[in-house]
Amino acid sequence: MLEVIILGAGKGTRMHSHLPKVLHPLAGRPMIEHVVATASRLSPENIHVVVGHGADEVERALAQYPLQFHHQAEQLGTGHALAQALPHCHLQSTVLVLFGDVPLISTPTLQALLSQVREGPGVLAAHLSEPSGYGRILRDDDQQFVRVVEERDATDSERRVQEVNTGVMACPAGVLSRLLSKVGNNNAQQETYLPDVLAVAREERLAVSVVVSHDADEIQGVNNRLQLEALERTFQQRFAEQLLTDGVAVADRSRLDVRGQLTCGYGVSLDINTLIEGVVVLADNVQIGANCVIRDVSIGPNTIVHPFSHIEDAVIGADCSIGPYARIRPGSRLGPSVRIGNFVETKKATLGAGSKANHLAYIGDATIGEGSNIGAGSITCNYDGANKHHTQLGDGVFIGSNSTLVAPVTIADGGFIAAGSVITKDVAAAELAVGRGRQRNIADWQAPKKDGE
Ligand code: UD1
Ligand code: CA
Question: Is residue 121 in contact with ligand 1, taking CB distance under 6 Å?
Fold first, then answer.
């Protein structure tokens, strides 16, 4: 039986932040959530999380997962943190210890470690060319494991060791709890160091398996923002590489950021500086132009999003053309073959098949039928300063340029609005509405002159 314990009680002083360290986002999700997701893939009996600093916030952030939380009131070290959860594990379980601040650890690596663990503990190590900050693995002349020394407690020659403790460890629960009870806090930080259980095991002649990970990226811990940024780049690079492998035409793997869940059909292309957030679904042949931000959106086949468009919480149909410089706001529902051009903003707006707003318009709280055309500079006045009102347009409606539709207002099928109109009354089917001052031309007009001329 497998049980996982994730340590996440630390403050993360080196982040210089009010947010508990393990809640800092990596690829749009709290870093500890990546660890929880990875642990879940091992189908353990239980996942325990040790919380302390910002415990409520951490518990809230992980509320959708079936987890057992344990409180570490004072942060007295990783060994002390483990001791808060270990008594809640079944004695016959194998316990896998993960750190909430080592977010990219992968399931196959954990399986490799677990496969080595029998009656003694096993630890995951790695060779780093830049090992500073990590505990070092010390071995004897026969290359047998001796103990882990923390950087703060290490001598200069020990600090030159490049084999590091990743923090990931596995051990039968009963053995682990016996070993842990023998660990003191006689060290630079006066803390109970979890890796010291390995030294106790070795003193007791218990076999300690050291499994070496050859992936220097997945074992990286996050103690400061530099490391978090580096891991974010690693994550994004790998994600982009996977997309490319799957056939998505990513223009530049270093200029794509996916902070959420992206699903792509066949023939999708993503130009440079695309930012994807939340849940985004792109159907076959969707093209996303440069510098677009797309959050919680589904886009139908063959639709082209031109550069610098911002799309949020929207459903876009097939064969549409969006942007450049379009802003599609929450609640927008665009049917097939809709065209939204530059500097057009939509919000809570439904546009039927083939309708167009090609330039400079605001369409808010509106339902528009099929094949209607909104001219440049036209807007729905949906807000009267207190309440929002709806605008309803039928099929084949034509809104001349620079018109103002004062909601609530309805324009029936084929309604035609003359350019520059302020529309305050409903327009019936096939009516022309002109709502503007008449033009007067005054002959022989003398333009004003400057004083004294
Ligand atoms: C730890 C290891 C070090 C290893 C490195 C790998 C110890 C003593 N050191 O160092 O050997 O190379 O991780 O990344 O274990 N935590 C608690 N309660 C505490 C202290 C820490 O829950 O009282 C949690 C933290 O939230 C964090 C994890 O344990 O998720 C590691 O703690 P941290 O202080 O970051 O340890 P490191 O100095 O990185
Ligand atoms: Ca750490």
Answer: no
